Amino acid sequence: MAENSFDVIVIGGGPGGYVAAIRAAQLGKTTAVVEKDKAGGRCLNYACIPAKTMLHTAEVFVEAKESEHLGVKVTGAELDWDALGKRRTEVSSGLEGGVAGLFKKNKIEFIEGEASLTDDGNVKVGDTTYEAGKVIVATGSVAQAIPGVEFGDRVLDTWGAWSLPEQPKSIAVVGAGASGAEIASAYIRFGTEVKLIEMLDQILPAEDKDVVRVVERTFKKQGIEVSTGTAVENVEAGKNSVKFTYGDNSAEVDYLMIAGGRVPDVEVLNLDGAGVKLEDKRIGIDEFQRTSNEKIYAIGDITRGPALAHKAMEEGIVAAEHAAGKDTHPVNIDLVPGPTFCHPQVASVGLTEAQAKEAGHDVKVGKFKLGGVGAGSVYEDRDGMVKLVVDKKYGEIVGAHIVGNRACDMIAELVATMALEGGNQELSFIMHPHPTISEAVLESARAVDGWATHA
Ligand SMILES: Cc1cc2nc3c(=O)[nH]c(=O)nc-3n(C[C@H](O)[C@H](O)[C@H](O)COP(=O)(O)OP(=O)(O)OC[C@H]3O[C@@H](n4cnc5c(N)ncnc54)[C@H](O)[C@@H]3O)c2cc1C
Asked: Is 361 tagged catalytic?
């Protein structure tokens, strides 16, 4: 094969792109990844991983300060912002090296540079054109500000908020989706004054109301000023602070951070020229991730559905397998779990109770408080809850919602149950290890039929 020719070329080395490349290489395809920045993409270098590294420190900091009742006395616990920043960088760069190592191990060529598609569906980087059997586009998304406001020194996007050189005294977070909630949750525990402002009528607007109630109560107890149904307006960014109004209030804070959504990073790709069509501002795809140009696949944040790393990875597998000519199975977009790593964590899959009713399901619900199982007391996780939304006819679980310290790990079981078409009755007879918080999942399944044993 010629030097500049590959069976599969992946544009973008984020979770979608690097996983797609590895799978294509595993299937014996000569594969290259073109990346204009760092291996691992935004998720690993600027988003998921740095955010979770910061959140972990927030958790450890609070535990250090508030563990006297557990029999651990810590005096003088304080944050070392520089050490925290250093660790955040080290965790990401270690993982970036890990992805680069996987490229090498799988004999994937890593091409540095910005790629675009040629009109005949090959890939151009600088002055070089690479011939591709198939192309997988995985260029991710970029932050979007709110109307009339631009990002700048004092107006931050999510990465700006996670990488501040010093701890701010005050921050206002605009947008209380997963990213906004995580930033508010970390900074309040670091000791920064936090306002969390959401235009819709609840924080975490995509989540079930019962779960959101628990989070909002905790946020307020922690000291976050929460405003819902409120738009931020009249933003004036100065040299040392930002002024703005929200509802009938006005405020001045060190930083205003906007977690107002993301848009696909597709501008330089020459989609039109290559015959790749957009649908609803994202790249249109079929069930095997093929675009309107069948030689070109698209995965991750640039396609429909929630912008999440695990969705991008799964789509990468499907695209790579299909591109390699292997039988594969389409991604079930209804079963993408949504994790939010605030405190308490929130995780869900499928429909909320309200969505299930709206979709015409005859719904029954099982709720179980984490305080009902022994582990809830041992691990101080009593306030959380598991809620299952079930269709009455066959007991099909159509939605699962967890709030609690381990929610993002625990949701995987419910994704698996739903994927394997298990209902609440099957789940009611599956043993869960004791004492673990996961016993609340078992109890929620029984609660659907009114026989939770620890209720
Ligand atoms: C603050 C924050 C926290 C998040 N936390 C989570 C989380 O906890 N869990 C979760 O599942 N998701 C999380 N997400 C979402 C997650 O980051 C994205 O869904 C994920 O990164 C999408 O992966 P991707 O492969 O589509 O794109 P990306 O990770 O965005 O990677 C795309 C790559 O393509 C490169 N690229 C773009 N254009 C070109 C070009 N023309 N040529 C060459 N290279 C190009 C970019 O440099 C980038 O490296 C978070 C997002 C944010 C902003």
From this structure: no
* 18 and 131 fall within a common domain: yes
Q: Whose CA is nearest to atom 21 of ligand 1?
A: 43
Centre of ligand 1 to C-alpha 42, Å, is: 4
Instruction: Report whether residue 290 contacts ligand 1, using a CB cutoff of 6 Å.
Output: no
Range of the domain at 93: 5-142+263-333
Q: Which atom of ligand 1 is nearest to the CA of 116?
A: 41
Q: Percentages helix, strand, coil for the chain, rounded to the nearest 5?
A: 35, 25, 40
Say yes or no: 225 and 236 in one domain. yes
Same domain, 367 and 429: yes
- Asked if 223 contacts 188 with a C-beta cutoff of 8 angstroms, the reply is yes
Tell me how far apart the alpha carbons of residues 271 and 139 are, in angstroms, rounded to a whole number.
12
User: Do 135 and 267 sit in the same domain of this protein?
Assistant: yes
Q: Count of CB atoms within 10 A of residue 378's CB?
A: 11
Cβ atoms of residues 365 and 331 within 8 Å: no
Q: State which residues of the chain have pLDDT below 50.
A: none
As given in the structure block, the two tokens for residue 79 are: 């944050």
pLDDT recorded at residue 261: 87
Asked whether residue 359 is domain-assigned, the answer is yes
Query: What is the pLDDT at residue 1?
Result: 55
Q: Which ligand 1 atom sits closest to the C-alpha of 316?
A: 25
Q: How many whole angstroms from 144 Cα to the centroid of ligand 1?
A: 14
Same domain membership, residue 164 and residue 82: no
